[in-house]
Amino acid sequence: MKPSPSTILFQGDSITDGGRSRNEDLNHVLGHGYAYLISSRLGMELASKQKTFYNRGISGNRASDLYARWNEDTYSLKPDLISILIGVNDAWRFMNDEPRGYTDRFARAYRHLLEETREVIPNTGLVLMEPFILKTGATLEKWEGWETLMAEYQQQVREMAEHFGAVWVPLQQTFNAALEQADASYWLWDGVHPTAAGHELIARQWLSVVQQSPLAIV
Fold first, then answer.
1. Domain boundaries, the chain
2. Which of 63, 121, 173, 189 is deepest in the core (most CB within 10 A)?
């Protein structure tokens, strides 16, 4: 049985970034999103264990952008657990026909990143979070295209989680179910980025899945 992770790293785009600082200011270094909520809760509950939490999410990142900075922002930190949420920017560029979205490299780049991670730090636990959207704001005009593309991404990430032995955190159904309580913009203000309530929803789902898995942080 593997020891409980001591160094936990959150990676991704703006949803993970959460407005984090780029310095060592402990009041802002984890941002104000789900990564902060998870870290604050576990950090308080496991204070005697003094776990270390890092947030290296960067707004606007795609899967290929993660790979480009993986040496500096992942390997150098020697994490015991890496949690990744990526995909919406790959979809955004592709749906808007932007030059950087001319070819859809999401699955290819993501798989390459995971293959190398398993080679370089084979004992590090992986948590793959499902990318998600709701029908409002940025996704409204081309909703059918967004929904189709995101469903493909979600399936690809789930298959990669199975292939690489990662813990899979489903999120789309979590947000869909939340629509019974409030409309889409209450959870994802523009169809993509979470509100405070949306971040709490993500954090609770992450904790409910990961803390019941072999990668539980205890």
1. 7-212
2. 63
Residue 132 phi, psi dihedral angles, 5° rounding: -150, 160
Look at residue 63 and give its three-state secondary structure: helix
CA distances from 1 to 4, 121, 126, 152, 214 (A): 9, 17, 16, 34, 8
The CATH number of the structural domain formed by 7-212 is 3.40.50.1110
DSSP 147-187: HHHHHHHHHHHHHHHHHTTPEEE--HHHHHHHTTTS-HHHH
**70-90 pLDDT, tens digit each:** 999 999 999 999 999 999 999
**Residue 16 and residue 82 in contact, taking contact as beta carbons nearer than 8 Å:** no
pTM: 0.95
How far is residue 198's CA from residue 39's CA, in Å, rounded to a whole number? 16
The DSSP output letter for 194 is B
Predicted confidence (pLDDT) at residue 148 exceeds the cutoff of 60: yes
- The arrangement of strands across the sheet holding 7-12 comes to 52-55, 7-12, 81-85, 125-129, 167-169
Q: Rounded to whole angstroms, how far apart are CA atoms 202 and 85?
A: 11
